[in-house]
Write the structure tokens for this entry.
Amino acid sequence: MACANDTFEDDLAELTSAEEFLEYFGIDFDGRVVQVNRLHILQRFHDYLAKQEAGKAPDYVAYRHWLAHAYADFVGSSAQAEKVFAVFRKAEGSSFLPLSSLTD
């Protein structure tokens, strides 16, 4: 997929799907879990990375760890239970969600 001259960041920039990320990092996955939760897995991965120390350079081992953790969150759970996106968190106490809340 990547040339020997590419950097880790260049490799990441080429990845476009949850499946590609999981394959790149060598993480075994169930396609059915990813098919249903791909956006949630990638968002959770992003959230985990955002909580890391600010200014840290990308590190393959850390990224692999957080992606595996994000995927594992959804193996025995669901998007509704994990509440990755605001629409699920806000829906708990309300039956009405204004359209503007979807852009949070």
Observations:
- The mean pLDDT is 81.
- DSSP finds six helices and no strands in the chain.
- Helices lie at 8-14, 18-24, 31-51, 60-75, 79-82, 86-91.
- The two ends are 35 Å apart (CA to CA).
